[in-house]
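Q: Convert this sequence to structure tokens.
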Amino acid sequence: MSVEVDNREYKVWAVDDVVYGPVSLQTVLEWVADQRILGGMWLYPMDTKQWTKAADLSELKAALADAAGSLDEEFADTGPLVVDLPLNALRKVKALDSMNEQQLGRFVQFMEIAKVERQDIVVTQGDPGDAMYLVLAGRLRVRQLISGRESVLATLGVGEFFGEISLFDEGPRSADVVANETSTLLIIRTDRFHEFVETMPEVAAPFLLAIGRTMGDRIRADNERHKKGLIMLQAAKDR
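A:
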């Protein structure tokens, strides 16, 4: 076995639909021996940057042959050591619903996950934009403070996202975003997004299209509100 493979690290897409890791080759071999990793499971060697079935990784073939067994209840109740992210939670995000499982698995490598508590300020109006946020759990509000009073512009729930303009323009935030309750967020930093687009354009394309559709819907909704406001203003003047 080469030194390069000896030093390889992996993420493991487990049967509970969670990505674990990165972990060392030694840990992966231990999980194979414990039947935590089976030949049909997907692994992500960090140096190859692609998902591969465990059975197709040459460094695991001997260990898998020795472990030769099938998934049972005991295995299902045994979790690996480092929990990263439940991939089925991504299905709740509108911008990701066009991705297949492999694309989601690749996409999540560029993301961070964070939990915020009630009344935590996630982004602050005027600060430089450096990330986009996707809501996996909880509820947040978009607000502006006008003469010290809060004006709520929108409420964001599970499956929605905000800060997407930061991926294209690192200008100042146009409003605060505050957690109404304990919430779980998926974060993609601008620099990681650029890396994502460059290295995985075929995965980035459906994500960008989904963002574009949502931004278009928001612009049309804003135009409609503006139109109604002008009509109401004109009606007030005509009285």
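Residues 223 and 229 are 10 Å apart (CA to CA).
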